[in-house]
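RECORD CONTENTS
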Amino acid sequence: MRRDRLLWILLLVLFAALVVLVARHEEGEVAGLGLDQFARLVTLGSIGIVVGLSLLALLRGSRLAEQLQAAALWLVIALLLAVVYTYRVPLQQAGQRVLGELIPGYAVNVADARHVTVAVTRGADGQFTVRGAVNGAGLTLLVDTGASSVVLTHEAARAAGLSVSALTYDIVVETANGRARAASVLLDSIAVGGIVEHRVPGLVAAPGALGGSLLGMSFLSRLDSFVFRGDQLILRGPAAER
């Protein structure tokens, strides 16, 4: 019983070490050690624990087969942790691609040395909707190349921190429901995956005038390119921040 408890404690320690490695990989070090050094320390420590438990089982001479099985299991866990950490970047990218296929509108960052590239999968309704952020607020926007501007619903504008009560709806726009009035605004930021554009001109539709927010040309025209490729929309922003 005590041995099983020790094994669980060690497993939790190893899991915590993996979490630390992933969480701090951008900072380059953990507790004064480089990430590679810390990962090597965790791996060697795990192997050392396995060897120690095996030697202890041999010295005690009791339940040897069970002890060796537990030691082998720990060795596999230690090696698995080392592999997961070593290939954390491609694994993260693979996970994002899976999410992009399962969740239409989920912006997947695509490896590209020259651009910040994002891929979005077409929805079941045949349209491209994007899960992005306007002024830091998470919003869903319909990609509309026929819209000259980014257009937010009244509710989305409020969620993005705009003072909707102070807006003047003096611009006439054409919508799927006919003509409507909108107010001109300047959006601090719009982010789609890794692509971020600042100070983007936009419109806020009058209450009840628009069924959903639109990602129009005032954002799309700032990109290096955007192409529709089958069931995917590929957005390419600049490699360097503007």
Remarks:
- Helices lie at 2-23, 35-60, 64-86, 88-102, 154-159, 217-220.
- Residues 104-238 form a domain with the Cathepsin D, subunit A; domain 1 fold (CATH 2.40.70.10).
- The first helix runs from residue 2 to 23.
